[in-house]
Design brief:
The chain is about 50% helix and about 10% strand. It is an alpha+beta fold and about 230 residues long. The protein binds glutathione (GSH). GO terms for molecular function: glutathione transferase activity; maleylacetoacetate isomerase activity.
């Protein structure tokens, strides 16, 4: 049985990717959640995660004696373990595109990442509006993401046809857009809704809202938990 070590569902975008992939694909795994804290070297989070992952970060996947860390490496490993599930598209050009856009997400969009951290339970629309007006690079990141989401093979398909690792990679981005209400084209919005309607994503959202934790480190825009909660 796989064990997936993740962080708080309200905040952890990197954890969300392999969790959504495994859940959406119906692969059973045991979830091990390590609560976020200050991430100081002596913190409980670091003490726990460093027992298995030398980078001191989540997510990490354990399968027997093997530990796989880094969200992309975990998804690649899962895809190799379950070739029949076609977690990358079967068709070569779509597969190449899925890999390109996943890599783009993995290493890019710094402005969006820095300015709009995921916060599933919060409604930060007014902050999003302000950030949008002030940061040209955020507008560029959003425009590129909107383009990626709008270039899917057909209006009702996922990013590269069937649900794939690429969609698991962009699911946390959808959550950032939801929280900060960043503007999208009609096609980009339709894709965001498609992701939000997935059972795996709904489960993540429900569990994130049940956590009711406030980690100041991850809260640049709120002073306390009761502030700016979604309905
Ligand atoms: N490239 C890594 C990044 C993982 C990462 O940054 N995880 C964050 C949580 S969302 C973390 O554990 N941070 C702890 C720290 O920075 O000390 C991946 O894709 O898994």
């Amino acid at each position: 049985m796989y064990q997936l070590f993740i962080g708080n569902k309200n905040y952890s975008t990197w954890s969300m990717r392999p969790w959504i992939l495994l859940t959406q694909a119906g692969i059973s795994f045991q979830e091990q959640l390590i609560q976020f804290d200050s991430f100081e070297p002596e913190s409980e989070f670091k003490t726990e995660i460093l027992k298995l992952n030398p980078t001191g970060k989540v997510p990490a996947l354990v399968n027997g004696d093997l530990v796989v860390w880094d969200s992309l490496a975990i998804c690649e490993y899962i895809a190799e373990q379950h070739p029949e599930l076609r977690l990358w598209p079967e068709e070569k050009t779509l597969r190449a595109r899925a890999r390109c856009i996943s890599a783009e997400m993995h290493s890019g969009f710094q402005s969006l990442r820095n300015l709009c951290p995921m916060n599933v339970e919060a409604d930060l629309a007014h902050i999003g509006k302000q950030l949008w007006a002030e940061h040209v690079q955020l507008r560029a990141d959003v425009a590129r993401i909107d383009q990626i989401w709008s270039e899917r093979p057909s209006e009702d398909s996922f990013l590269c046809g069937e649900f794939s690792i690429a969609d698991a990679f962009y699911a946390p981005v959808v959550m950032r857009f939801e929280c900060f209400k960043l503007p999208l084209s009609a096609s980009g919005q339709a894709y965001a809704q498609k992701i939000l309607s997935l059972a795996s994503v709904q489960q993540w959202i429900t569990e994130a809202r049940q956590e009711q934790m406030f980690v100041p480190f991850d809260e640049p825009y709120r002073q306390h938990r009761e502030e700016l909660l979604k309905d």
